[in-house]
Amino acid sequence: MFDMMKMMGKVKEMQSKMKEAQDQLKDITAEGESGGGLVKATANGNKELIGLEIDDSLVNSTDKNMMRDLVIAAVNKAVGEADEKGKEHIKKSTEGLMPNIPGMDLSGMM
């Protein structure tokens, strides 16, 4: 028989674990680079840019458009990687807390 109190307890536990996992996203980092390593960006699991390295050879360059494109590419790679790592972290943190109910998609919570 379906135990509603047990299910509510599981929901509360999952909410707690989800909040804890989300709070830890700031500690997950990912890097992206472009231009053969001339530009390197670091993002965290909250998809925030937390570091940017630009090789000195670009700083003296007069080609600002190329530098802009390389920065954008590196940042996008870092944010994409951070997003994947964040999703994996949330998945691991909440694994086994909720039963696999067909049609119940919790992916939007991540």
UniProtKB/TrEMBL annotation:
Its main location: cytoplasm. Residues 84-110 are annotated as: Disordered. It is found in: Cytoplasm, Nucleoid. GO terms for molecular function: DNA binding. The keyword RNA-binding does not apply. Residues 84-94 have a biased composition (Basic and acidic residues). It holds the Pfam family YbaB_DNA_bd. InterPro entries: YbaB-like_sf, YbaB/EbfC. It comes from the Bacteria. Residues 4-31 form a coiled coil. Keywords: Coiled coil, Cytoplasm, DNA-binding. PANTHER family: NUCLEOID-ASSOCIATED PROTEIN YBAB. HAMAP family: DNA_YbaB_EbfC. Binds to DNA and alters its conformation. May be involved in regulation of gene expression, nucleoid organization and DNA protection. This is Nucleoid-associated protein SAMN05421640_3254. The lineage of its organism: Bacteria, Pseudomonadati, Bacteroidota, Cytophagia, Cytophagales.
